[in-house]
Amino acid sequence: MPSATENGTNGATNGTSNYGIPASCPSCPEPLKYSGTLDQYPYFEVTPIIGREYPTLKVTDILRAPNAKEQIRDLAIIISERGVVFFRDQGDLNVPDQKKFCDLLGKLSGRPEENGLHVHPIYRDPGNLKLPDGTTDENIASYVINSDAQKKIYKTMAKRQTDEPRDLSREWHSDSTFENVPSDFSFLKMEETPPHGGDTLWCSGYEIYDRISPPFRSFLEGLTATCAQPVFRSAAAAGNYEVMSPRGSPLNTGDEFAPSHPVVRTNRITGWKAIFAGVGLHVTKINGVYAHEDQMIRDYIMRLITRNHDCIARMKWTKNAAAIWNNTCVWHAATPDTHLVEGNRVGVRASSIGEIPYLDPNSKSRREALGIPIV
Ligand SMILES: [Fe+2]
């Protein structure tokens, strides 16, 4: 596998690029191939571009299958190709098995061996919600799904009260991009949901990359972005506790939360390129460009997301529905409208830590790899 240096995308010789991209691409693997073990389960594609739903498949059936490892590896490939996969009626799935399944998705699909489930930085916060059995779990981010809990935990955040409607484009993000080694798979199960509202949306970073012209793609491939999230340090200081450390990787330690990640990234499982750190809640600036250029680039990518709704899959949650997605190739956004309806929204999310994001210059776009014309 050629290094980024050999292909001229950086000139550093110390193991990292000028922009922080691993120069030697140590974890650039060959794409994984689907072996067919999930063909027995009915499914439909949510849209032509993104998303698949298995309407009757139980995650517990996969876990108990004699060839569970092969099925989980195949599902990791399907999730990485389709971006997000939906399931219904997972009431028999308990939290330990949800964690185990999420961990195995990463483990069986080539994640670095030393990594595991993400530990949320402010797990020690006294506002952290308890799980239904009265316990808490450092790998389960139930409070990020609950708006009331968020208000208590992030009490140090600046007030965003305004007399204008909120700009919901700020909801788009990829999980844990504030970490040196961010998440690959996230697994969210919605245990309680209002009769309507609270939909979650996923947008394909593969397809957004495919909507960009070749000269502009090349420009973006030379960029990194700073993904700073100082709110964890300020929340911990206000609550007089230490942030958790390490957090799913020996490289995710301390309380800086300001890594640089490539704007264009290769998914290690499909080998396809996706726009990654060019936009989103945790992205604070494009490195090495002037301030107005930084804003212009991020506005441009957000414009592509918000003006191309054929790149988006939408989940209308039902009780015990679940979604598993690959954060390296999709962004997701919650819809903060549940205050308008009666009913609780209670979700349980586990997230696996993947690898240091890299751009393999030999990798292809999704449409290039699948032979799909651009128009
Ligand atoms: Fe998220």
Number of helices: 9
Do you know the CATH topology?
Answer: Double-stranded beta-helix
Subunit arrangement of the protein: single chain
Helix content: 10-25%
Structural shape: globular
Distance between the termini: 31 Å
> SSE order in H/E notation?
EEHHEHHEEHHEHEEEEHEEEEH
Q: How does the helix and strand content classify structurally?
A: alpha+beta
* Poorly predicted tracts of residues: 1-21
**Ligands, ions, cofactors:** fe (ii) ion
Widest sheet, order of strands: 1-2-3-12-4-14
**Gyration radius from CA atoms, angstroms:** 20 Å
User: How many β-strand stretches?
Assistant: 14
CATH architecture name: 4-Layer Sandwich
Taken together, the total number of domains comes to: 1
**Overall pLDDT level:** 88
According to CATH, the homologous superfamily is Clavaminate synthase-like
